[in-house]
């Protein structure tokens, strides 16, 4: 389905865009120039993320500028200026030093979005330890798995999280030497240390040691379809990509108030919810609470957020909540909105325009890429539903895998509008450098000098990229390869549908046929008539071979903690297959109880493919 292109009026930009002439900037771009915008450690001692994000601002006129504005769940607000952040992170680095923790050792974080999380992460990076933030909602098993794969020697957590999730598995973590409790004042669990006491006793001065830009700084775990999570390793050099992409794709300027809603347990919450804004000297909002419609609108209003980076799942929740919570708000400070993590359906892009007077700018990247690779930029037109165009400095191809395991190859697709796998030319600074303990798995991501993303996409004649689905989720029906996104974007264009997840289910004739799960806007009843209409709507736009054979109306869809619909779980439940690694599942998922919502097979709706 194609939607009208959104053109922008340059007079509407409140500040001159960082990226105006896309083609020219792309032609002239060099990573060396991007690197030159950073300071590097004094005396040529290398490049350290924490120096760029904290110390260099603390030493200059930005010392009193708020680095982090923390909004506590209970309404308290704490501002941490760059100067104070420098001292606190120095204290944390000194605590590690005092404990004998060495450069390269792994420090795991299990905390909600509280200031200590940011202080520990940046302090550990100062000390050249390798940081791995975990979602605080993880249960003991995902924690154990990650700390085992990462040989974590330090864990920073809260008393409650430790007692509930770690104490019972501590004896299974032989590498874990120190547990630092951030709120130990009222009593410490046995075998742990009180971080506040250690910080108070530590010096607020710390000189960062020589840091090779290729030294590891972060590990982010990403779920595999089966088995164990993979620990993608990122190095200090990544900050070069974090900063330039935040300038180009998020249009961050020094005076912005920036809110990235992601948790640092997901790579977005680290690259853009911590490193990029701080490294650019921008004030960032950190909200401790989870999504809540009223709260989110009041944050945008009261904090005068200028640039907002969020995810499609949150945008769809705001859409679902209707206009009422928003209409009386003064959201005039907002000047740029971006989204990542999942396909941003065209209606959501356009909703942004209607609700905020600003379209939502989709961008694409992965844990492995470390930073935004494809984006819709502020000064360029938006083709709703498209991920946009490659970042300057990023070479992208649409590829088909050729050969076999022994002679793997790729064939690049030059013609427009042919689907294939999204491939990136390695060499950008934030590219992952390995998967912990899985060197073969890492090596298998590369073929003929390309990094293959396992995402399917097509490129139109003007270079805009359109997402079609994960390679693992692709549906093969009667000789067609169907990307679930094609089906879902049509279903979500229907006015009753908020979200959709499409999977392939076996069919004796077609191989597979499409089955879709949808959620409806509140108050809309899943009548047979509406389902018939939805089938007709999909069939008219997709054709009988691609339209879903069956549509199930669910109360909700299974999602990851970063908001991605877990199609693989929908499929496993449907077919009784192994469910694989579910450690990032947001909440237990039960298939919709019978009778709770509607379902329609072709017979019921009379709309199956012919
Ligand atoms: P993660 O590594 O958890 O950040 O997940 C990365 C995956 O999320 C990508 O490989 C895509 O499958 C999906 N993804 C991220 N951004 C987008 C986007 N803008 N459109 C469609 N899919 C996306």
> Which stretches are poorly predicted, pLDDT < 50 over at least 5 residues?
593-597, 602-610
Output the structural class.
alpha/beta
| Mean pLDDT rating | 94
- Tally of DSSP β-strands: 29
- Total number of distinct structural domains: 2
CATH superfamily of the largest domain: ANL, N-terminal domain
Characterise the protein shown here.
- The chain is 29% helix and 24% strand.
- It has 610 residues and is an alpha/beta fold.
- α3 (49-58) crosses α4 (82-98) and α4 (82-98) crosses α8 (195-201).
- The protein is globular and about 70 Å long.
- The model is unreliable at 593-597 and 602-610 (pLDDT under 50).
- The structure holds adenosine monophosphate.
- Adenosine monophosphate (AMP) binds at residues 222, 267, 340-344, 362-364, 366-367, 387, 453, 455, 467, 470, 562, 564.
Compile the SSE list and pairings.
Layout: H1 22-28, H2 31-36, H3 49-58, E1 66-71, E2 77-81, H4 82-98, E3 106-110, H5 115-126, E4 130-134, H6 140-149, E5 152-157, H7 159-166, E6 178-181, E7 193-194, H8 195-201, E8 216-222, E9 230-235, H9 238-249, E10 257-260, H10 267-279, E11 283-287, H11 293-302, E12 307-310, H12 312-320, H13 324-327, E13 336-339, H14 346-356, E14 360-364, E15 374-375, E16 389-390, E17 396-403, E18 408-413, E19 420-424, E20 434-435, H15 439-443, E21 446-447, E22 450-459, E23 465-470, E24 475-477, E25 480-482, H16 484-491, E26 497-507, E27 511-520, H17 528-542, E28 550-553, H18 567-575, E29 599-600, H19 602-605
Parallel strand pairs: 1-11, 3-4, 3-5, 5-6, 6-7, 10-11, 10-12, 12-13, 13-14, 27-28
Antiparallel strand pairs: 1-2, 8-9, 9-20, 14-15, 15-16, 17-18, 17-19, 19-22, 21-22, 22-23, 24-25, 26-27, 28-29
Adenosine monophosphate binds next to strand 14, strand 22 and strand 23.
């Amino acid at each position: 389905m194609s939607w009208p292109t959104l053109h922008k009026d340059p007079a509407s930009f409140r500040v001159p865009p960082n990226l105006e002439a896309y083609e020219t900037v792309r032609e002239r771009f060099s990573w060396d120039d991007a690197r030159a915008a950073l300071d590097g450690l004094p005396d040529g001692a290398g490049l350290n993320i924490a120096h760029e994000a904290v110390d260099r601002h603390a030493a200059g006129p930005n010392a009193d500028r708020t680095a982090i504005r923390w909004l506590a769940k209970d309404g308290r607000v704490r501002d941490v200026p760059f100067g104070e952040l420098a001292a606190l992170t120095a204290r944390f680095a000194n605590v590690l030093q005092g404990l004998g923790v060495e450069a390269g050792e792994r420090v795991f974080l299990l905390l909600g979005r509280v200031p200590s999380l940011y202080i520990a992460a940046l302090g550990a990076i100062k000390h050249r330890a390798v940081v791995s933030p975990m979602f605080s909602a993880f249960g003991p098993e995902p924690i154990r798995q990650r700390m085992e794969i990462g040989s974590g020697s330090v864990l920073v957590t809260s008393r409650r999280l430790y007692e509930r999730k770690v104490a019972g598995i501590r004896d299974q973590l032989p590498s874990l030497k120190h547990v630092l409790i951030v709120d130990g004042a009222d009593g410490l669990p046995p075998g742990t240390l009180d971080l506040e006491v250690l910080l108070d006793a530590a010096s607020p001065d710390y000189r960062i040691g020589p840091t090779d830009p290729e030294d590891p700084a972060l590990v982010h775990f990403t779920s595999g379809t089966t088995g164990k999570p993979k620990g993608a390793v990122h190095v200090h050099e990544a900050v070069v990509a974090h900063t330039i992409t935040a300038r180009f794709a998020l249009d961050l300027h020094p005076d912005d108030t920036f809110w990235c809603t992601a948790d640092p347990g997901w790579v977005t919450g680290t690259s853009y919810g911590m490193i990029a804004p701080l490294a650019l000297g921008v004030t960032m909002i950190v909200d401790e609470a989870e999504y809540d419609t009223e709260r989110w609108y009041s944050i945008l209003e009261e904090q005068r957020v200028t640039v907002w980076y969020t995810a499609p799942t949150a945008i769809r929740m705001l859409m679902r909540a209707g206009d009422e919570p928003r209409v009386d708000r003064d959201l005039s400070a907002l000047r740029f909105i971006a989204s990542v993590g999942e396909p941003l359906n065209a209606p959501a892009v356009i909703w942004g325009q209607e609700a905020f007077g600003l379209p939502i700018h989709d961008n694409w990247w992965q844990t492995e890429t470390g930073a935004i690779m494809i984006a819709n930029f502020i000064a360029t037109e938006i083709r709703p539903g498209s991920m946009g165009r490659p970042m300057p400095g990023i070479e992208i191809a649409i590829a088909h895998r050729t050969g076999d395991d022994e002679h793997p190859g790729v064939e690049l697709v030059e013609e427009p509008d042919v689907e294939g796998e999204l491939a990136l030319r390695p060499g950008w600074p934030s590219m992952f450098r390995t998967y912990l303990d899985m060197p073969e798995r890492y090596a298998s991501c590369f073929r003929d000098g390309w990094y293959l993303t396992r995402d399917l996409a097509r490129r139109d004649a003007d270079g805009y990229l359109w997402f079609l689905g994960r390679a693992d989720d692709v549906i093969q029906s009667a000789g067609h390869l169907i990307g679930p996104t094609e089906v879902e974007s049509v279903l979500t264009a229907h006015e009753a549908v908020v979200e959709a997840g499409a999977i392939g289910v076996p069919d004796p004739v077609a191989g597979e046929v499409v089955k879709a799960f949808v959620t409806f806007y509140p108050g809309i009843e899943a009548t047979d008539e509406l389902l018939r209409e939805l089938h007709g709507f999909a069939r008219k736009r997709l054709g009988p071979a691609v339209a879903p054979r069956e549509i199930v109306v669910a109360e909700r869809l299974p999602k990851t903690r970063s908001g991605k619909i877990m199609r693989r779980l929908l499929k496993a439940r449907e077919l009784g297959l192994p469910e694989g690694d579910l450690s990032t599942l947001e909440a237990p998922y039960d298939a919709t109880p019978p009778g709770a919502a509607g379902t329609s097979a072709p017979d019921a709706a009379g709309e199956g493919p012919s």
